[in-house]
Amino acid sequence: MISNEQIEQFIQQAHRVGDAGLTICSSGNISWRIGDEALVSGTGSWVPSLRKDQVSVCHVSTGEVLNGVRPSMESGFHLGIMRERPDVDVVLHFQSPYATAVACMKDMPADFNVTAEIPCHVGSEIPVIPYFRPGSPELAEHVKKALANHNSCLLRKHGQVVCGKGFDEVFERAMFFEMACRIIVLSGGSYEVLNQAEIEDLENYILNKKQ
Predict the structure, then answer these.
(1) ∠ CA 60-66-168 to the nearest 5 degrees?
(2) Is the dihedral of CA 4, 71, 26, 88 positive or negative?
């Protein structure tokens, strides 16, 4: 049973995403799994000013809408990711300025690991998905496939998707994704990335911190 407090928390997190400039107007969408159900921003809603009457409650396994509010047209990959990955409770599709500029580049960067935060939080490999119409089954399938074993992906001529366990993890992932793309754009393409040995050294450092 979804509580009013959980809906309010979801709305606060949506506004946080908007306040950070990760979405504008009706761009982007966000979801949160709570047990067998998920809250999803409604179709046509503005994430930065999401209201209670624009929050859709869906059954994760079937996609059935439980409260009469139509979910985002991208709910197919939101719920699909949750079905494929029990470790994921939050999915964010955003269109931040620099990351979206990169998504529209003719010459796509082959490597986004410009700082240590990228392999540590975003992912040392970020899948790039070809353009498909927003809301299409093809896009949903490609996003689900890409995030089956990654936490972030870039959608050509569209935007980005990140997922994770909680709101803070997903917000951090999106912000560092945008930071990396800002560095790439502002450098004019003249930038260095961490090499494989440096990335592996970071992985060992993180592992030792957890032990």
Answers:
(1) 50
(2) positive
Phi and psi at residue 108, to the nearest 5°: -75, 135
How many Cα atoms within 13 Å fall on the side-chain side of residue 172?
Answer: 13
Q: What is Dmax (Cα atoms) for the chain?
A: 52
Residues paired with 29 in a beta bridge? 93
Task: Using pLDDT thresholds of 50, 70 and 90, give the confidence band for residue 210.
Answer: low
**Residue 68 to residues 36, 53, 57, 65, 154, Cα–Cα distance (Å):** 17, 10, 8, 6, 31
What is the distance between the alpha carbons of residues 167 and 39, in angstroms, rounded to a whole number? 13
From CA 154, how far away is CA 126, in angstroms rounded? 7
Residue 135: CA count within 13 A, CB half-sphere: 8
CA distances from 100 to 29, 87, 105, 157, 203 (A): 15, 27, 9, 7, 28
Model confidence over 149-185: pLDDT tens digits?
999 999 999 999 999 999 999 999 999 999 999 999 9
**pTM: predicted TM-score of the whole model, two decimal places:** 0.94
Cα gap 146→191, rounded to integer Å: 26
Domains assigned to the chain: 4-210 (3.40.225.10)
**Host H or E run for residue 185:** helix 167-186
Give phi and psi for 135, each to the nearest 5: 85, -5
